[in-house]
Amino acid sequence: MPIINRRPWDLPESAATPIDFVMNRRNIMCAGLGAIGAAALAGSAAADTPPAEAPPPGYEPAAMAYDPGRPLTPIKDSTTYNNFYEFGLDKDIWQAAQKLPVDPWSIQIEGMVSKPFTISFDDLMKKVKTDTRIYRHRCVETWAMTVPWTGFPLSQLISLAQPLASAKYIKFWTLEDDRTMTGLSVPFFPWPYREGLTMAEATNELAFIATGMYNQTIPKQDGAPLRLVTPWKYGFKSIKSIVKISFVDKQPETFWQTTSPSEYGFWANVNPAVPHPRWSQAHENLIGTDKVVPTQIYNGYGQWVAPIYAGMKQDRALFM
Ligand SMILES: Nc1nc2c(c(=O)[nH]1)N[C@H]1C(S)=C(S)[C@@H](COP(=O)(O)O)O[C@H]1N2
Ligand SMILES: [Mo]
User: Fold this and answer.
1) With a 6 A CB cut-off, is 144 part of the ligand 1 pocket?
2) Domain-located, residue 103
3) Closest Cα to atom 21, ligand 1: which residue?
């Protein structure tokens, strides 16, 4: 089986079920063999342990799996250290978030589409083809994680929605449920949480809707039952628990941009050279470790997304 055209965030076809491959490597890391596990995950020739399955002919270590350049964040860290302001301003909202009512769940599609409709989460899942992506996740607050998501490319949802050619942006809304989301009583914030992308960003192959993490249903605190993941942007773009999507022709106002326009913008592309007004963006701490590593432009995904911004002014607004 020739390994060609594999995009580095894809998992190897050699893994019978892709996530098992990841989880096996992860278990190695959990066993305290971090360096070996990380090398195996990256498909590095330096790994002391052979791959669980025989490599296919033409096996190319570098092409074997997306190399996030770092081990997966342990699941206990990525599911207990969260930002979900609807449930509180601290990172330890995971228990409070268990109140999020996710069943039944439906998503409303409206705006510049051939025909607005509402679809249940269950019906949506019957219409999409799921896959797995290991992405780095960089919060604007300078912490970072590496997460194996399952879900589907946002472009599949856009195809279902059939936007009109006049649509220029896609806008997303999070559930606003006063009964369970105690954070909504903090009046300072412009609830509900809202985000947006240009159509070029939304149809980029990296833009992903996650419905699972680590081969499990996505936990409530991480944005069940479906959340956006745009790994080249600061984490606040990755809106959780989406209930409505609208196609529009004007740049949407977003939650953080409305809250503090001098600090957070619409674009929010990761750039180590553009500091936040109150802190540097040059480095990031890897949650679950004591490691601090340099931040990369577009969080290391420039090869796939920098062309989107090629014709634009490369000013601070693109990176805040
Ligand atoms: N609805 C909603 N979505 C949200 C947030 C939020 O507070 N509410 N926080 C954002 C921020 S700042 C980050 S860094 C990520 C955190 O995702 P995680 O908790 O799954 O790591 O979610 C983003 N999506
Ligand atoms: Mo964030």
Assistant:
1) no
2) yes
3) 82
Ligand number, closest to the Cα atom of 195: 1
Q: Taking phi first (over 0 means left), then psi (-120 to 50 degrees means alpha), and beta for anything else, what does residue 20 get?
A: alpha
Calpha distance 94→32 (Å, rounded) = 26
- CATH number of domain containing 219: 3.90.420.10
The angle subtended at Cα 181 by Cα 180 and Cα 183, nearest 5°, is 150
Q: How many domains does the chain have?
A: 1
Q: Which domain holds residue 175?
A: 36-319
Per-residue pLDDT tens digits for 201-211: 999 999 999 99
The CA 258 to ligand 1 mean position distance, Å, reads 16
Residue 168 domain-assigned?
Answer: yes
| DSSP letters for 272-310 | TTS-BTTB--SEEEETTSS-EEE--GGGGTHHHHGGGGT
24 part of a folded domain:
no
Q: Which ligand is nearest to the CA of 81?
A: 1
H-helix or E-strand spanning residue 97: none
For atom 1 of ligand 1, which residue has the closest CA? 240
Q: Is 246 a pocket residue for ligand 1 (Cβ < 6 Å)?
A: no
Q: Is residue 25 part of a domain?
A: no
| 44-77 residue pLDDT tens | 333 333 333 333 343 333 332 356 889 999 999 9
Cα 73 to Cα 90: distance, rounded to the nearest angstrom: 20
